[in-house]
Write a structure and sequence with these properties.
The protein is an alpha+beta fold and 116 residues long. It has one domain (18-109): Alpha-Beta Plaits. Helices cover 34% and strands 34% of the residues. It has helices spanning 12-16, 37-55, 82-97, and strands spanning 21-31, 58-63, 70-79, 102-113. It has a four-stranded antiparallel β-sheet with strand order 2-3-1-4, with helices on one face. The longest helix has 19 residues, at 37-55. Mean pLDDT is 84; it is low at 1-15.
């Protein structure tokens, strides 16, 4: 039996709408009273786990792995519209900035649409 699949062409109004947005956030952190990589891990792991659980984003420590007082945390998110990306990444940044045991040195954002 042969199956025939019909491919429907999108309407012209759909062509102008961006269907997918990808956002990323790099958070450069200075950790407080930390004297070893083990102590660093005890601060960074719970932060990464909280961001994953609370905001349903992809999160990882991506740089400064061998420095015990610094961490670079990357956050990524895919959404159907840019406004949702901005809202979630704003909330992630605020959450990290208000943690007393670390200092947010910088935050860098990038947005890409399906048209890029």
């Amino acid at each position: 039996m042969v199956r025939v699949q019909t491919i429907r062409q999108p309407s012209s109004s759909y062509d102008r709408r961006v269907a997918m947005w990808v956002g990323s956030l790099e958070l450069d952190l200075l950790l407080g009273d930390v004297h070893s990589l083990k102590e660093k891990r005890s601060l960074v792991r719970p932060l990464v786990a909280e961001l994953r659980r609370r905001f349903e984003v992809s999160v990882a420590e991506v740089d400064h792995l061998d420095l015990h007082r610094r961490a670079l945390v990357g956050v990524a998110l895919v959404a159907g519209d840019q406004a949702h990306l901005v809202e979630v990444l704003d909330a992630v940044e605020r959450t990290v900035a208000y943690r007393p045991e670390l200092e947010l040195l910088s935050a860098r954002r990038r947005f890409r649409s399906g048209d890029d």
